[in-house]
Every structure is written in structure tokens, then in C-alpha cells.
């Protein structure tokens, strides 16, 4: 679920908490139910807590932020472009490391 929550932020610039929760439930409902359950009160309460307090370490960049921080990072397309370039460079470095080992 953590990756899905991150994907929503990456793909929807300028998300606020409620937008993020709605999109996450709408796009990844089964994953949310598996992770949290079906009770709407529990889901909304936990996701709201996750927004402010759960860290997500992006495996593509090794950067770790809360979901709120990721949302602020992805607030505009320029930041998304920088992120995409960082992922691209990181992947190239990983390939180089493999070739030199």
C-alpha cells in the first residue's frame, strides 16, 4: 500500500490530504482494504494519520519523506521533472555498479 500511496502523489500534482485519500481509495481500493480494512471511519482515520506521520522511502531514489512532504514536493511539474531525472540517473548508476562488480 505504501507504494500505491506514493504513486497517487507522484501522478496527481498538488494533492491535498483528502484528494490523496480519495484517489488512493478510488485507484487502489483493494490494496487499501487488504491493508486497513473496509470500515470507512478506520480507513479515513488511518490514512489521515499516514499523511502526516508515515514515512515512505522511495526505492528508486532512496529519499524518505512523509506523504505530506512528498505531496509538497510534487506540487508542480518542475519538481516532477527533477524527480524523473533523479530516478533516471539513479538507475544508470545502478547499472554501472553492476557492470563494475
- Mean of residue pLDDT values: 92
Estimated structural class = mainly alpha
> Termini distance?
33 Å
Q: Which percent range describes the beta-strand content?
A: 5-15%
Helix content: over 70%
How would you write the strand order of the largest sheet? 1-2
Radius of gyration: 15 Å
Oligomer classification: single chain
Tally of extended strands?
A: 2
Topology order in helix (H) and strand (E) letters = HHHEEHH
Tally of helical runs: 5
The poorly predicted ranges are none
Biggest pleated-sheet summary = 2 strands, antiparallel
- How would you sum up the global shape? elongated
Give a structural overview.
This protein is mainly alpha-helical. 74% of the residues lie in helices and 6% in strands. The chain has five helices and two strands, in the order αααββαα. It has helices at 2-11, 17-36, 40-53, 67-73, 77-100; strands spanning 55-57, 64-66. It has a two-stranded antiparallel ribbon with strand order 1-2. β1 and β2 (64-66) form a beta hairpin. α1 (2-11) runs antiparallel to α2 (17-36) and α2 crosses α3 (40-53).
Describe how the helices and strands are arranged.
Layout: H1 2-11, H2 17-36, H3 40-53, E1 55-57, E2 64-66, H4 67-73, H5 77-100
Summarize, please.
The chain has 101 residues and is mainly alpha-helical. The protein has five helices and two strands; from the N terminus they run H-H-H-E-E-H-H.
Amino acid at each position: 500500500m505504501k507504494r500505491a500511496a506514493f504513486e497517487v502523489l507522484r501522478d496527481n500534482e498538488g494533492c491535498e490530504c483528502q484528494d490523496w485519500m480519495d484517489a488512493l481509495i478510488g485507484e487502489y481500493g483493494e490494496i487499501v482494504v487488504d491493508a486497513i480494512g473496509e470500515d470507512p471511519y478506520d480507513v479515513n482515520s488511518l490514512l489521515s494519520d499516514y499523511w502526516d506521520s508515515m514515512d515512505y522511502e522511495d526505492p528508486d531514489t532512496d529519499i524518505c519523506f512523509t506523504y505530506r512532504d512528498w505531496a509538497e514536493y510534487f506540487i508542480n511539474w518542475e519538481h516532477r521533472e527533477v524527480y524523473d531525472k533523479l530516478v533516471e540517473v539513479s538507475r544508470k548508476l545502478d547499472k554501472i555498479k553492476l557492470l563494475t562488480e
